[in-house]
Design brief:
Length: 376
């Protein structure tokens, strides 16, 4: 008989062999820096896009229960009302994470005889959520509207289009204008995961749909509090009835403990801070970095704060990342299955915390890395 746990080591060996092994660094983040093994680097890996300064919060007792049992502190209601207003929706509901919001909301709204049209590059949490629905799943080519038009013709009880606002690993915007038109013609429901656009783009940081002027066409907004806001948690904003259904059906809401009040207060304080000041700084930095990247010959297809430097092979991306690390820059290689095989990349995210000097230094290291690795 084979030892019963042998398969674990063999799976790990395989992951290593394919250059897909992931490891966690012991790290400490201080402002724009990250310290790993006593080495301090410029952090180009943070999703804390606005870099809002840590607000002071009181240490109230935690609920330690599901919100439906004994954990519905009024701090939730206060933040949910603010988030609903932020999205011009009737109600919001906070989940422990954005990942759990996607699982809970999507599996509550979509059922067996429905058709889900999901962008090929949608985040893993959306993919997992779609699997939970038992619906007919149709993946359309990334941002390809003719493919969407073709695939939406399939007969179904109800049709749903699911897309991200700004794609997390590519930094490009979803084609929300056309998606809105297609949904209208086909009576389809749009679910928008705007984890990377929320608080970052649009008027007053209202997100990608606002940026495109199609806010009213979106049926369900899902987002994270852990990116633009730099806090923790996930939420959904929509009409009252949809939120009510989520409260009643979302397993990732019903059967888990509520977030600690400490985190809700933290998110509320950040929400109320002068976000506009940080947003302005972020976009100033993005402009500077983007222009610099072009100048040194990187042809990066992004008009957001997320810049994918496509390397290709997994091993090459690891080496590129290691070179950046040695030279004081922290930017992780992103590999399969987060992106497709041979499309490994260095994902750079620009934040408001970076100074002009950080950007100049980062560009200079990237330029020398480009030369060393013969990137075109
Ligand atoms: C598009 C997208 N949706 C959802 C999530 C999950 O958000 P959270 O980190 O709050 O679980 C992420 C996180 O990376 C994401 O990129």
């Amino acid at each position: 008989m084979k030892p019963k746990l042998e398969y674990i080591n063999s799976q790990l060996k395989n992951i290593r062999k394919n250059n897909l092994y992931r490891k966690m660094y012991d790290s400490k983040i201080t402002g724009p820096y990250i310290t790993i093994n006593s080495k301090t680097l410029i952090n180009l890996c943070s999703n804390d896009y606005l870099g809002i300064t840590q607000p002071k919060i009181s240490n109230k007792q935690n609920q330690s229960s599901s919100r439906l049992v004994a954990g519905n502190d009024n701090s939730f209601r206060i933040l949910e009302e603010k988030l609903a207003k932020h999205k011009s929706q009737e109600r919001s509901l906070i989940f422990p994470t954005g990942y759990m919001a996607n699982l809970g909301v999507i599996s509550s709204l979509i059922g067996k005889n429905d058709l889900v049209l999901s962008d090929k590059l949608n985040h893993a949490s959306l993919i997992e959520a779609c699997k939970l629905c038992n619906a007919k799943l149709s993946i359309f080519k990334h941002n390809n509207m003719s493919d969407l038009i073709h695939k939406i013709k399939t007969k179904a009880r109800r049709k749903f289009i699911i897309t991200e606002g700004i794609f997390s690993m590519d930094g490009d915007f979803s084609n929300l204008n056309t998606i809105s038109e297609i949904s209208e013609k086909n009576n389809a429901i749009i679910i928008l995961d705007d984890a990377h656009g929320d608080f970052v783009v649009g008027n007053d940081g209202k997100g990608t749909a606002n940026y495109f002027g199609v806010s009213k066409k979106i049926d369900v907004y899902i987002s994270s509090l852990s990116k633009g806001l730099g806090s923790f948690g996930g939420y959904v904003s929509s009409r009252k009835s949809i939120i009510e259904l989520c409260i009643n059906k979302s397993k990732s809401f019903i059967y888990t403990s509520a977030l600690p009040r400490l985190l809700i207060d933290d998110a509320t304080k950040r929400f109320e801070s002068n976000r506009e000041k940080n947003r302005k700084k972020l976009w100033k930095n993005v402009k500077k970095f983007s222009a610099g990247l072009k100048k040194i010959g990187f042809n990066v297809n992004s008009n957001s704060h997320i810049f994918p430097i496509i390397i290709g092979k997994e091993k090459a991306a690891i080496e590129f990342g290691e070179y950046l690390f040695k030279n004081g820059i922290f930017a992780q290689p992103i590999r399969y299955p987060t992106v497709s095989r041979n499309h490994a990349r260095i994902r750079i995210s620009i934040t408001a915390r970076l100074t002009d000097d950080h950007i100049t230094k980062s560009l200079s290291v990237l330029e020398s890395a480009k030369r060393k690795f013969h990137l075109i």
